Amino acid sequence: MRAETTGPAPQLPEKHYLNATYGIRSWLLTTDHKRIALLYLASVTFFFFIGGFFAMMIRLHLLTPNGYLLTPDQYNRMFTMHGVTMVFFFLIPSIPAILGNFLIPIMIGAKDLAFPKINLLSWYIYILGGAFTLWSMINGGLDTGWTFYTPLSTIYSNSAVAPAVVGVFITGFSSILTGLNFLVTVHTMRAPGMTWFRLPLFVWAHYATSIVMILGTPVIAITLGLAAMERVFGLGFFNPAMGGDPILFQHLFWFYSHPAVYIMILPAMGVISELIPTFARKRLFGYHFVAAASLAIAVIGFVVWTHHMFLTGQSTYAAVAFSFLTFIVAIPSAIKTFNWTATLFGGSISFDTPMLYAFGFLGLFMIGGLTGLFLGALGVDINIHDTYFVVAHFHYIMVGGAVMGYLGGLHFWWPKITGRMYPEWLARIAAFILFIGFNFTFFPQFIVGIMGMPRRYHTYPPEFQIYNVMSTAGASILAVGYLLPMVYLTWAAFYGKVAGENPWPATGLEWKTQSPPLTENFEVTPVVTWEAYDFHNRPDLGLDVPSGKGSPGVVAPAHGDD
Amino acid sequence: MHRTGSLYGQFKTLEQQKDTATLGMWIFLVTEVMFFGGIMLAYTINRHTYFHAFAMGSNTLSLGLGGFNTVVLLASSFTMAMAVWSAQTSKKGLITLFLSLTILLGFVFFGVKYVEYAQKFHHHLVPGKNFDIFYCANNPAKCEDIDAADMAKEKEELEAAAKADPDLNAHAQLYYSAYFGMTGLHALHMVIGAGLLFWLLKESVAGKFNAEWNNPVDIVGLYWHFVDIVWIYLFPLLYLIDRHK
Amino acid sequence: MQSPLPTFPEQASNFAGNVDALFSFILMTTLFFAVLVTVLIIFAAFRFRRQSEKEVGDDVHGNNVLEVGWTLIPTIIAIGIFAWGAVIYVNYRIAPKDTLDIYLIGKQWMWKLQQPNGRKEINELHVPVNRNIKLIMGSEDVIHDFYVPAFRVKMDVVPGRYNTMWFRPTKTGKYHFFCSQYCGTNHAVMGGWVTVMEPAEYAAWLSGESGDVNPVSAGERLFTQFACNTCHLANGTGRAPSLNGVFGGNVLLADGSTVTADEGYIRESILQPKAKIVAGYQPVMPTFQGLITEEQILNLTAYIKSLQSQPVPAKGAGIAPASAGKK
Question: Which of C188, C207, C226 is the last residue of a domain?
C-alpha cells in the first residue's frame, strides 16, 4: 500500500531530463548521468537476451543424455558464450551502470557525477568491447569456457579466442572508469549536510563495489592481455613447453574474477538495503554494521581467490589458508542477512513488487551463500569441485541474488526514472513466476552435482537425466518470468499511471525531486539535516508517526554528525 | 562547449573541480599500479624459477642505451615539474618551453627504444618461431653491431648459462616475453602521455594556465611522473640482472 | 556402502565416509540457519504487515549485543567446518608411504594408465581393494581432471608438472570416473571405469587376460575400451572415417593410391597409423603400439570384419571412391 496524497492525481512535470532536448545526437552525446543510465539499460538488456539465448540452447540440448541439438563443439561454444556475455556484459555493469549511474548523484544531492564525459566514454568503451565479443560470436564463437584456462585458450582452442579476449579486455576499462567516477563522486560531490553516515546504503554498497572495480579489473586486463599475446605472438608465460606455468594464469585470472563476483553482488545488496527499510517503513537495523560489512566484503574478497584452485596441485598450506579466509569472507554477508531480517521486526510491511523481490533475494541469496560453505570446506570441495553443485551455487547468488536485486531495484525506481508506475498485479505475478522458475531450474543442479555430474558436459550418464529435464522445465518458466517485466516495464514507461514525486513513500533524497527528475536533478541544492531511513523525522512523507507497535531491542541514542 | 579553466556544470567551485580531478588522477594511477603489477608478478615468478636464463637475457641488453634512457626520463620528469611550477607562477612562456622540452625528451626515449627493438628483431630475440638466444653466438657475421670483445663475453656467458639450464632457449624466451611485454606496455603509456602533453602545449600556448588555474598541468604531471617511476622499476629489473661481474 | 545421504553415490573409498559426514554436518548446520532465518522472515512478514495506509514501523537503530552475537557464533561454526575440511584435505594431499603407484596421462580426449608391472590401460583403471593406491598424473596437452565420485576424490592433471592423488578402495565393483576440468570438444566423453578387484583377482588380471570366447563381441568391447569409437563414428561425421563396409573394400589414400582393407591393413593402421592416411583425413590417430596385445588386435579385426554389412554413410565412408571425406 502506498501513502497516496489526498487530492487530484499527480501530473507529469512539464520539463524533465527526458524531454529537455530531443534528437539522437542529444542521446548519443549526452553527459547527463540519467540518460547514460538509460543507454546502459538498453545495451545491457540486449546482452542479457543474448546470454539468455545461449542459456536456452544449453538447457534444450541437455534434455537428453546424448543431446541431439548441438554438436560437442557447438555446445562448448554455447556455455562459454553464455558465461562471457552474462558475466562481463550483464552482471558486472547491470546495477552499477544503470541504477548506480542514475541514482548516486541524486542520492547525494549532486547535479551529476564527478566526470560526466568519462561516464559517457565508459558506455562507448562498453559498446566497443561488446562489438568485439559479438564479432567473436559471429566468427564461430569461443569454446574455452568463460574462464579462458591456459593452455587450452592460448594454444589448443580453434575458436575465435582473440576477438573475445580483446572484447573483454576493452570492456574492463568501462568498469574501471565507472568505479573511478563513483569513488571520486562520493568523496567530493556530496551536498551540504550529507555526511558519510547519512548516506544511503546503496551508496555505501557502490563505494565498496568501486574499490573492487578499480583494484581488481586492471589485473584481468593484464592477464587477458598476456593470454592474447601468447596466442597471437607466442609469448610464453603460461606455456609449459617454454617453461611457463598454466597455473600462473589461474592465479592472475582469479585474483580479479573472485572479487568480480563481489562486484556483482554488492550493488544488489545495496538495493536490498533500500527496499527493506522502505517497505517495512523502518530504518535499517544496524546501519553502521551493514556499511562496514560492505567494505569488509570488498577487502576480504581480495584474499580468497585460490579457493577456485584447491585441486590444481598447489601448496597444501596455501589451500588451508585460503579455505580459512573463504569462511571469513562469508561472515559479513551473514551479518547483513541478519540485519535485514531484524529490520522487519516492528516494521510496517507491505508486499509491493520490489519487496517481493527483496524477500526472494533473502531466501535465494541465503541458499547460494550457504552452499558456498560446502565448497569452501576443503574436504568436501574435493568431491564437488567442478560439478553441477558449483553451477547451482553461483547461479543462486548471481540470479537468485543479483538479478533479483536488479529487478527489485528497477521496479522500485521505475517511477522515478520514467515518472510512471508499472502495473502492480502483473508485476507480482511475474515475480512469483520468476521465483518458481528459478528454483526449478537450479535446485536440481545441486542434486545432480552431488551425484557426480561434472560441469561443462555436453553428454551425461542416463541416471542424471531426470534432474536435467526438471532443470530445463524450470528454465522455460524462468524465461517467461524475464520476458514479462521487459514487456510491461516498457509499456509502463509510456502508458503507466503517473507516479508523482514519492509514490511509496521512501526516504532517500532521490524521492524529493520530481519524477522524472530535471536534468540538473535539483532546482536548489538540498541541505541535508536528517538521517537515512528516518521515517520518524520526516513529516514531508505524510505518514502517521509514531507507530503503535512494540519493538524488540534497544533504541540507541541519536547519532551525531559523521 | 566547456573550455579549460571554466567551471563545469556539476561543480560548485573551481576548488571542488580541482580537488575532484586530482583525486580522479590519483585513483587512476592506483589502477595503473595494479595493471603493471600483474606482469611484474609474472616476471618475478619466472625470474626466480629461471634465473640463469633471465640473467643471460638481461646481459644481451645494452646498459649504455638503457642507462641513457633512464637519464632522459628523469630529465623529462624534471622539465615536467618545472612546467607545473611555471604554471603555478603564471610564467606563460616557460610553461610552453618546459612542456616542449618534456615532449622532446619523450621522443628521444622513443628513438632509443626503437634502436633497441630493431636490434632485437635483427638478433632473433623476439619471442616466437624465430627466437634463438644463440643466434648471434652462432652467426657473428650476421650480428656485426656486437664488437668482438662483447661477442666473446656473450659466448662465454651463453656457455655457462646453457650448462646451468639445458632448456636455456625456451626460458630465455620467457625473459624476452617479459622484456617486450613490460617495455611495450610502458612505451604505450608514454605515447598516451605524449598525446596529453601535446594537448597541454596547445592549451598553454593559448594562455589557459596561470596561478589561478593550472590543474590540468598538475594532473598530467602526475601521470608523467608515474610513467617515469615505472621505468625506474623496469630498468633494474630488466637491464641489471646479475651485472655485478 | 550406501551413503546415508540421499542421491549420493555409494561410498567406495577410505575418504568417502568422512567426506559425507562433513557434508552432513554442513548440511544440518546450514539447514538450521536457513530454516531459522526463513521462519523469522515469514513470521515477521505476517506479524508486522501493514495495518493502515500511513502506518510506519518502530524507530530502532540496532542492538550491539545482537550484532556481536550473530557475528561470533557463525564465525565459530565456520571455523569448525573449516578445520574439519582442512584435516580431510591435508590427509588427502599427503599420501602414505606404502602405496601401489599407478601412472596416468590425460590427453585430449582419453586417459592412458600404466600399472606397476608396465601393463597399460586406456580409459580403465584396475586396482586391488583395501590397498593404498597412488596415482601419479601428467597431461600431454591441456589441463584435465581425474574424478571418481564413488571415491569422493579428484585432482587436476596439469601439463608441465606431475600431480599426485591417493585413495584406498574399500569395496569391489565398477565405478565411473570422469574428466572434471573442461578440456575441449570431447571433455564429456573422456571418462571410463575404475574396477576394484579382490587382490588375487587383481594379481591374475595384472599378469594375463581372461579371454572372451566370441572374438567379435570381444572386439566390440575393445573398440569402445580403446576409444576407437570416439573418432571412427559409424555415421561418418567423426574425425576418422567410418568403418562400415570397409573390410575387404578399396581404401583411397591421401597420396592417391588405393589399398585393399585386409587383416594386414587393419593391423598396420592400429600399430602404425601414420603409414597410410585415408584421403581427406588428418594424420591424428594415435598409435597403439605397446598398448594392445596381438590377441586384442585379432578381436578388433574380427569386429571390423563384422561391420562389412553395415550401411556405408554417404559422406565419411572409409572406402573409395565415395570417401570424399569430411574434415
Answer: C207
